[in-house]
Design goal:
Elements (H helix, E strand, L loop, with lengths): L3 H14 L15 H13 L5 E5 L7 H18 L2 E5 L3 H7 L3 E5 L2 E6 L11 H7 L2 E10 L4 E5 L2 E5 L13 E7 L3 E3 L5 E10 L4 E7 L2 E7 L8 E6 L1 H4 L2
Parallel strand pairs: 1-2
Antiparallel strand pairs: 3-4, 5-6, 5-8, 6-7, 9-13, 10-11, 10-13, 11-12
Length: 241
C-alpha cells in the first residue's frame, strides 16, 4: 500500500484538479448534485485506473451545471490520458466528446466508428432518423410526366425520380425521410406549426414543432416558448443536393 503522506498529498492533488478543495471536510449529505458527481469521479481516479467507465455522469443535473461538469470531466480525462467509456442517452454529448462511437439499440449494434463518418452513405437511414438527422413526414404523392412531389401541409416536396419510382404510388399517401437541415424557421414559410417543446442547447435551441400531428425538429437561435405559432420553410436545394 501507500504511506499516509503520499495518500494525503495525492488526495489533495485530486481535490485541486477537480476544484473540490472547498468540500474536503464536508459530509456526503452536504454536497450539491454537481459536487457529488465530481467527488465520485475523484474516488474513481484515486486508484489510478487504466480505464474509466462513466455511466450517465450528467444525469440529474441542471442544464447550466451539466455543461460545467461536462467541461471538467473532458478536461481531466484528456489531461490524465485515461481511456474512458462514456455511457449516455444524450447523443449530442456523445458526438461532442467521443473519438469513437458505439450505438446500441434494443441490444443490437447499429453503428461503430467515428462521429465524422456518420454522414457517409453507408450509414442506415433508420439510424439517421433515430439520431435526428432525418425527419419523417407524411403526405400525398403527386405524380406528373416530369416530376414527382409529396404534398405536406401547404408545401410541395420534390422527389428525385428514378425509373418507375413513383408510378406505382400515384395518388397514394406516403411517408418520406428528408434531412433535418432542410427545415428552417421562416416568416414567409408556408408550413404552419405549433411549438410543442423547447430544448436549450447553450447558444441555440432545439424545437419540436407539431405540424399536422407530426413532430418536426427545428434548430434555431431564437428563444421561443411552448404554444408559439411558427412558420417553416423546406429548402429544396438541400433535398436535391
Amino acid at each position: 500500500g501507500y504511506d499516509k503522506k503520499y495518500i494525503e498529498r495525492y488526495v489533495n492533488e485530486l481535490l485541486k484538479m477537480l476544484n473540490l478543495e472547498h468540500v474536503a471536510n464536508k459530509y456526503p449529505k452536504m454536497l450539491s448534485g454537481g459536487e457529488a458527481k465530481k467527488v465520485a469521479l475523484a474516488r474513481a481516479l484515486a486508484i489510478k485506473p487504466k480505464a474509466l467507465l462513466l455511466d450517465e455522469p450528467y444525469e440529474g443535473l441542471d442544464v447550466e451545471y451539466k455543461q460545467v461538469i461536462e467541461q471538467e470531466i473532458t478536461r481531466i480525462v484528456k489531461s490524465l490520458k485515461i481511456t474512458t467509456v462514456l455511457v449516455t442517452h444524450d447523443i449530442v454529448k456523445a458526438f461532442v466528446n467521443a473519438e469513437q462511437l458505439i450505438i446500441l439499440w434494443n441490444g443490437k449494434l447499429l453503428y461503430q466508428g467515428t462521429p465524422s463518418n456518420m454522414n457517409e452513405k453507408g450509414v442506415p437511414h433508420n439510424l439517421k432518423f433515430w439520431l435526428g438527422t432525418l425527419v419523417e413526414l407524411e403526405g400525398n404523392l403527386i405524380n406528373d410526366p416530369y416530376e414527382g412531389y409529396v404534398r405536406f401541409s401547404n408545401t410541395l416536396i420534390p422527389l428525385i425520380r428514378t425509373k418507375h419510382s413513383t408510378q406505382r404510388l400515384s395518388k397514394r399517401k406516403v411517408r418520406i425521410l428528408i434531412p433535418a437541415s432542410a427545415i428552417r424557421l421562416c416568416k414567409l414559410g408556408n408550413v404552419r406549426g405549433v411549438v410543442k417543446e423547447v430544448i436549450p442547447r447553450g447558444n441555440y435551441y432545439n424545437l419540436i414543432v407539431d405540424v399536422d400531428g407530426f413532430n418536426v425538429p427545428v434548430k434555431t437561435s431564437i428563444k421561443l416558448t411552448e404554444g408559439d405559432i411558427v412558420k417553416l420553410r423546406i429548402n429544396e436545394a438541400i433535398l436535391l443536393n
